[in-house]
Amino acid sequence: MLTYNSFIIITNVIIKRPVNAGVSNALGLELAYNYKPFSWWILDFGTNLFYYQIIGKIAGSSLDQETFTYRGRLSNNFILKHNFICHFIIFYHMVYLDSLHQKTS
Protein backbone atom coordinates (compact mmCIF):
# COMPACT_ATOMS: atom_id res chain seq x y z
CA MET A 1 0.00 0.00 0.00
CA LEU A 2 1.28 3.45 -0.85
CA THR A 3 0.09 6.42 1.15
CA TYR A 4 1.12 10.04 1.26
CA ASN A 5 2.79 11.90 4.10
CA SER A 6 1.83 15.59 4.22
CA PHE A 7 3.51 18.46 5.97
CA ILE A 8 3.09 22.23 5.79
CA ILE A 9 5.89 24.70 5.11
CA ILE A 10 5.77 28.27 6.44
CA THR A 11 4.62 29.51 2.99
CA ASN A 12 1.35 27.53 3.44
CA VAL A 13 2.28 25.05 0.71
CA ILE A 14 1.34 21.42 1.24
CA ILE A 15 3.88 18.96 -0.07
CA LYS A 16 2.95 15.32 -0.52
CA ARG A 17 5.36 12.51 -1.09
CA PRO A 18 4.80 8.75 -1.34
CA VAL A 19 5.61 6.63 1.69
CA ASN A 20 5.67 2.84 1.89
CA ALA A 21 3.35 2.58 4.88
CA GLY A 22 2.45 -1.11 4.92
CA VAL A 23 0.43 -3.69 3.06
CA SER A 24 -3.16 -4.14 1.95
CA ASN A 25 -5.06 -7.35 1.35
CA ALA A 26 -8.29 -7.71 -0.59
CA LEU A 27 -10.52 -10.69 -1.24
CA GLY A 28 -13.81 -10.69 -3.12
CA LEU A 29 -16.44 -13.15 -4.29
CA GLU A 30 -19.26 -12.58 -6.73
CA LEU A 31 -22.08 -15.11 -7.10
CA ALA A 32 -24.95 -15.19 -9.58
CA TYR A 33 -27.89 -17.54 -10.09
CA ASN A 34 -30.53 -17.56 -12.82
CA TYR A 35 -33.78 -19.49 -12.50
CA LYS A 36 -36.80 -19.71 -14.79
CA PRO A 37 -39.75 -21.10 -12.78
CA PHE A 38 -42.15 -20.55 -15.71
CA SER A 39 -41.75 -19.61 -19.38
CA TRP A 40 -43.01 -16.09 -18.56
CA TRP A 41 -40.94 -15.48 -15.39
CA ILE A 42 -37.14 -15.11 -15.13
CA LEU A 43 -35.58 -14.79 -11.68
CA ASP A 44 -31.97 -13.56 -11.21
CA PHE A 45 -30.09 -13.44 -7.93
CA GLY A 46 -26.65 -11.92 -7.43
CA THR A 47 -24.45 -11.16 -4.43
CA ASN A 48 -21.02 -9.65 -3.84
CA LEU A 49 -18.86 -10.29 -0.77
CA PHE A 50 -15.72 -8.21 -0.23
CA TYR A 51 -13.05 -8.16 2.50
CA TYR A 52 -10.34 -5.48 2.68
CA GLN A 53 -7.51 -5.14 5.21
CA ILE A 54 -4.78 -2.53 5.68
CA ILE A 55 -1.80 -3.15 7.97
CA GLY A 56 0.69 -0.35 8.41
CA LYS A 57 2.16 2.44 10.45
CA ILE A 58 3.28 5.96 9.57
CA ALA A 59 4.82 8.58 11.83
CA GLY A 60 3.87 6.58 14.92
CA SER A 61 0.21 6.31 13.86
CA SER A 62 -1.38 2.98 13.08
CA LEU A 63 -3.17 2.65 9.74
CA ASP A 64 -4.61 -0.77 10.61
CA GLN A 65 -8.20 -1.31 9.53
CA GLU A 66 -10.36 -3.97 7.99
CA THR A 67 -13.75 -3.97 6.30
CA PHE A 68 -16.20 -6.64 5.22
CA THR A 69 -19.04 -5.60 2.92
CA TYR A 70 -21.74 -7.41 1.04
CA ARG A 71 -24.64 -6.61 -1.22
CA GLY A 72 -27.34 -8.52 -2.98
CA ARG A 73 -29.78 -8.11 -5.84
CA LEU A 74 -32.94 -9.98 -6.74
CA SER A 75 -34.36 -9.29 -10.18
CA ASN A 76 -37.73 -10.47 -11.52
CA ASN A 77 -38.55 -10.28 -15.24
CA PHE A 78 -42.10 -11.00 -16.34
CA ILE A 79 -42.58 -11.55 -20.05
CA LEU A 80 -46.08 -10.41 -20.99
CA LYS A 81 -48.04 -10.36 -24.26
CA HIS A 82 -46.57 -8.63 -27.32
CA ASN A 83 -43.01 -8.95 -25.89
CA PHE A 84 -43.75 -6.44 -23.15
CA ILE A 85 -41.42 -7.03 -20.16
CA CYS A 86 -42.13 -5.96 -16.61
CA HIS A 87 -38.99 -5.73 -14.47
CA PHE A 88 -38.81 -5.56 -10.63
CA ILE A 89 -35.53 -5.28 -8.72
CA ILE A 90 -34.79 -5.57 -5.01
CA PHE A 91 -31.33 -4.33 -4.04
CA TYR A 92 -29.57 -4.43 -0.65
CA HIS A 93 -26.23 -2.87 0.25
CA MET A 94 -25.07 -3.25 3.82
CA VAL A 95 -24.42 -0.20 5.97
CA TYR A 96 -20.89 -0.04 7.34
CA LEU A 97 -18.53 2.43 8.97
CA ASP A 98 -15.92 3.97 6.71
CA SER A 99 -12.43 4.99 7.80
CA LEU A 100 -13.84 8.13 9.47
CA HIS A 101 -16.43 6.01 11.35
CA GLN A 102 -19.31 7.51 9.37
CA LYS A 103 -22.19 5.36 8.18
CA THR A 104 -22.01 4.58 4.49
CA SER A 105 -24.46 2.64 2.37
Describe what this molecule looks like in 3D.
- It is a single chain.
- Strands 3, 4, 5, 6 and 7 form a five-stranded antiparallel beta sheet that branches.
- The protein has no helices and nine strands.
- The protein is 0% helix and 75% strand.
- It has 105 residues and is an all-beta fold.
- The model has no long low-confidence stretch (mean pLDDT 82).
Q: Provide mean pLDDT, rounded.
A: 82
User: Which stretches are poorly predicted, pLDDT < 50 over at least 5 residues?
Assistant: none
Shape: elongated
Which range best describes the helical content: under 10%, 10-25%, 25-40%, 40-55%, 55-70% or over 70%? under 10%
The main pleated sheet reads as: 5 strands, antiparallel
Concise structural overview:
The protein is 0% helix and 75% strand. By secondary structure, the protein is mainly beta.
Features:
five-stranded antiparallel β-sheet; two-stranded antiparallel sheet; 105 residues
Give the SSE layout.
Blueprint: E1 2-8, E2 14-20, E3 22-38, E4 41-58, E5 61-62, E6 65-79, E7 85-93, E8 96-97, E9 103-104
Antiparallel strand pairs: 1-2, 3-4, 4-5, 4-6, 6-7, 8-9
